[in-house]
Amino acid sequence: MKYVLLTQGQGAQFVHMGKDFHDNFPIFKQTMEEAEDTTCLSIRKWIYEGSQESLSDTDKSQLSIYATTIAIYNVLNEICPYIEFSTGLGLSLGEYSVLTIAKSLPFKEGLKLVRCRGELMQEAAIAHPGRMAAILGLSSDEIAKHLVGTAVLANLNTLSQTVISGSAEDIELTTQNLKNNGAKRVVPLDVRGAFHSSLMQTAFDKFDPLVQATDFKKPNFDVIMNANAKPENDPARIKNLLSRQLVSSVLLSDSIRAAGSAATYLELGPGTVVKGLVQKNLEAQVLSVNTVKDLKEFEVCAHL
Questions:
Q1: Which residues, in sequence order, are bridge partners of residue 185?
Q2: Is 248 a known active-site residue?
Q3: Rounded to an integer, what distance in angstroms lies between the CA atom of residue 91 and that of residue 207?
């Protein structure tokens, strides 16, 4: 059986994520050591000894999630080397994890890009402060009618859950409009910037040349890209879409539907955010491996 690979985006981070793998599997520890050696940063201290507030800083959370996800995959690959993927889908930052697992983006190059991405996004967020919020109970078309100023549709997660992004003032005005026009709930996101909006343009301008200069290979399986919700395997197109994602909407709902309900999904990395979003879009089987307990349960199921 081939699975549709799912990986997490920023916001999924939490202190001690992956610690049970670190304590039980040498390959996990080796992967995290490689991440620290490549970046010259104390990633494990951020995760295992730091605070949730500190780990939520964009430059720390992105590297931490990416390294942890690849380390979990390496454990899975060691325990279940027969596992194959037909397609991959990562939420925002998660695209880098998918591309690395698909052998398109080498881990060391991925670390360099993710580090720069996080730092540039944080830099842009400081220069152009903003916020993001999830809106529940309204369609994206209904939300679009009430956007104010810099506010845009950042993540189209389900038919009734959309994330908006923009300056703090514009998000405040927009959310008030939406509450007055039928929104069931507004949930501020645990991120430090207006991602996937025009406020990230300075990050895009500096980041795109770095992506274009990186050698991507043709992936071992198609990757459904956030920016167009279509399966891609051409390295040049993947690079363009990967960069564009910084300032464009994440078409997650359309991406999930492109993968289809007939597939069995396998989510890797901290938390189960993407699993929940898949299940809100489709009636599909979604398995997760983000703890050692999950791995043991998956290993039993995979052999049945």
A1: 136
A2: no
A3: 19
**CA nearest 152: which of 124, 126, 133?**
133
Q: Are 256 and 281 in contact (CB under 8 A)?
A: yes
Per-residue pLDDT of the chain (304 residues; tens, 9 = 90+): 899 999 999 889 999 999 999 999 999 999 999 999 999 999 999 999 999 999 999 899 999 999 999 999 999 999 999 999 999 999 999 999 999 999 999 999 999 999 999 999 999 999 999 999 999 999 999 999 999 999 999 999 999 999 999 999 999 999 999 999 999 999 998 777 999 999 999 999 999 999 999 999 999 999 999 999 999 999 999 999 999 999 999 999 999 999 998 889 999 999 999 999 999 999 999 999 999 999 999 988 765 5
Indicate which residue of 92, 104, 197, 255 is catalytic.
92
Residue 109 and residue 215 in contact, taking contact as beta carbons nearer than 8 Å: yes
Q: Are 157 and 205 in contact (CB under 8 A)?
A: no
**How far apart are alpha carbons 256 and 242 in whole angstroms?**
17
Encoded tokens for 81: 């080397």
Considering the four listed CATH numbers 3.30.70.250, 3.40.50.720, 1.10.1840.10, 3.40.50.300, the one that applies to the domain covering 130-188 is 3.30.70.250
φ/ψ of 282, rounded to 5, equals: -140, 155
From 128, 196, 197, 248, the catalytic residue: 196
Domain boundaries along the sequence of the chain? 2-127+197-303, 130-188
Catalytic-residue membership of 16: no
Name the CATH code of domain 2-127+197-303 (choices 3.40.50.1010, 3.40.366.10, 2.60.40.1930, 3.90.1210.10): 3.40.366.10
Global pTM exceeds 0.70 = yes
